[in-house]
Write a structure and sequence with these properties.
The chain contains 7 helices and 7 strands; from the N terminus they run ααββββαβαααββα. The chain is mostly helical and 225 residues long.
């Protein structure tokens, strides 16, 4: 009986020591080591790829898209249609984006795609309505947008609904409207888009892209200069 009790005590003691050692290694030392390496070598990415404006205030992340809409007349009216603020470059359509006016009450709503098939009537109507809106919003007194010029990313959301980037084609399509709304020269705005266009990762992965938040921060600085 005494041997049995002694063995049980030894087993419990060994288990507790193993628990303590593994807790220190896996729960303290390993996280500290990984965090230290991340902060030392990838500080920006480890902290969320934050984007700051000219004043140094964090306005969002380069990994998560934001919308640029006019405020509602009644913030509590869920039925009131949301209208884009046309002085800013607009992102891909999505119900999952947080809101921003390049100030900075950024709030994430949700992430997800529609899960509708390409021939779903509701999705087809959404795309058709979105294309009509893009044509109407971006046609100015001196620049006419044709339906065939509207790129796919202007009328469809990404799989997550949180894509922070648009295609250079969609950014260029918005240039005349943005220039008119902000009383800027078209060439100045075209240069902004050119300067904020990123190529394929490592030269062959993905597609050329423009980060909308970074572009709008540069636009804000330009419009105040």
């Amino acid at each position: 009986m005494n041997n049995s009790v002694g063995n049980t005590v030894r087993l419990i003691g060994a288990g507790l020591r193993a628990l303590l050692v593994l807790t220190v290694i896996c729960g303290v030392l390993y996280p500290l080591a990984v965090t230290g390496v991340a902060q030392a070598l990838f500080n920006d990415k480890a902290n969320g790829s934050e984007i700051k404006d000219k004043s140094g205030q964090v306005v969002g992340s380069s990994l998560i898209g934001q919308s640029y809409n006019l405020p509602k007349n009644d913030p509590n009216d869920a039925e009131e249609a949301v209208k884009p603020d046309l002085k800013w470059f607009q992102p891909r359509p999505s119900n999952g984006l947080g809101s921003n006016s390049v100030n900075m009450q950024y709030s994430l709503i949700l992430s997800g795609a529609t899960n509708k098939a390409a021939d779903n009537p509701d999705l087809v109507k959404l795309v058709e309505d979105a294309k009509a809106a893009v044509v109407a919003d971006n046609t100015t007194a001196t620049y006419a947008v044709k339906p065939q010029d509207v790129p796919a990313d202007a009328v469809t959301s990404s799989g997550s609904g949180l894509d922070p980037n648009i295609s250079p084609e969609y950014a260029k399509l918005q240039v005349h409207r943005v220039a008119e709304q902000n009383k800027l020269d078209v060439k100045q705005v075209e240069k902004l888009v050119e300067d904020h266009t990123e190529g394929r990762t490592l030269g062959f992965m993905g597609e050329p892209r423009v980060n909308v938040l970074e572009l709008n921060i540069a636009l804000k600085a330009l419009s105040k200069s």
